[in-house]
Amino acid sequence: MMETPLENEAPAAGTGGPEQGEESEASDEALAFMSSIEPAELQRCVFPDSLVTVSEGGRELGKFSVTVELSRRVQRPCVLLHAQSQGAINDCPCGTTVTAYLTTDLEVLEEDYHEYVKLEDHSLDKRCHMVQCEGQMMIDKVTTVGEEVTKESVSYPMSSLKGLITEGSNFLLMRLIALRKKVPEHTTFISLDQGLHIIHSTFGELGLHQLVVGGETVEVYGVERTVHSLEYGPTTWQCYFLDDGHLASRVQVGSPVTMRLLQLPSHHISEKGSEKIPLVWEEDMEMRSKFLGRKEELKADHASYLRQHPEIRALISDFLQFLLLRKPEDVFQFAREYFLPFASPPSPRTVSKPSHTERTLKSTS
């Protein structure tokens, strides 16, 4: 239901990068766009989007949301983006989640992608993780169909990924284009297809249109993105944005499903005279979606921290083994004594001086 170039299966790719996309490069205009992003522009992109997914007949199928916030990672400022769609296709639950850490010029530091479809006889689960490590982009993809598991691993030098637009960075790039209301000419980025090959992706301007949102007709700006895969053919998405960058409509060309904004962000329903209803967040689709989204976001963040600090697992493992061997009655005291050698020695400035009373008692003893 989300934009998913990794949607279909492909032959496993080998370490070092597949041959198909070796000559794919981003255009100078694309690189110039990324390097021209100003902090003030990014600040304007820090807001959530929330849309509903509907069928051609107007039936609501699910929810779609994107959150963007400023963060820090590896002692450098970055943008944390989290996008999620949840719903059902032919009454089968499905969803997609993307969590990405991006530099201020949209370079990917780390990204997690998860897609699932729960069918009656079997399920489909796809996960893709990419992270920068020592000048390389390490990419691991795991696809589970029923009980069959396929694993693929690829690594690319960062020098070959200039102008890369991924699942996560695409959402932020579209917002920036919408706020500028201009798609630079000859702007060609690179992306990854289902087989993790490097391919081209291009953007085009759809111009200004009229769209009905929440019963009001508003002017929206359209942007079209096409991913050009030699193996799977081109795939195109069309998005329309409000003046402030909020996403108003999103559709994959040829798909019967559309994502729509139901109410303008500035509209609020008055609660005057209305009876307060107890909030049961578990039964509220939007709040439950936000809860699950935040949960996935925290899991990805915690997993990333543990990967950066493998000593944590070793330390905890050693402590548990020692604890089970000794089996102390007072676990808290045992833990205190075990971890005490790891504590830093107190600074001379923090050592308390004896009080006047203590000095007097000591001198008279």
Counting DSSP E segments of at least 2 residues, the number of strands comes to 14
Radius of gyration: 26 Å
Based on secondary structure, the structural category is alpha+beta
Distance between the first and last residues' Cα: 81 Å
Strand content: 35-45%
Note the main sheet.
14 strands, antiparallel
Subcellular location: Cell membrane; Cytoplasm, Cytoskeleton; Nucleus
Region (Disordered): 1-29, 346-365
Domain Ciliogenesis-associated TTC17-interacting protein N-terminal: 29-256
GO cellular component, one term: nucleus
Summarize, please.
Pfam families: CATIP_N. This protein is α+β, with helices and mostly antiparallel strands.
Structure description:
By secondary structure, this protein is of the alpha+beta class. It has 2 domains: 28-265, no CATH class; 281-338, no CATH class. It is 24% helix and 38% strand. The chain is built from 7 helices and 14 strands. It has helices spanning 28-35, 39-44, 167-180, 285-308, 311-326, 331-339, 356-364, and strands at 49-54, 60-73, 76-89, 92-102, 108-118, 123-133, 136-145, 148-157, 188-192, 198-213, 216-229, 233-241, 247-252, 258-260. Strands 8-7-6-5-4-3-2-1-14-13-12-11-10-9 form a 14-stranded antiparallel beta sheet, with helices on both faces. The longest helix has 24 residues, at 285-308. The protein is globular and about 70 Å long. Residues 1-22, 267-277 and 348-365 have low confidence and may be disordered. It is found in: Cell membrane; Cytoplasm, Cytoskeleton; Nucleus. Belongs to the CATIP family. One of its GO terms (cellular component) is nucleus.
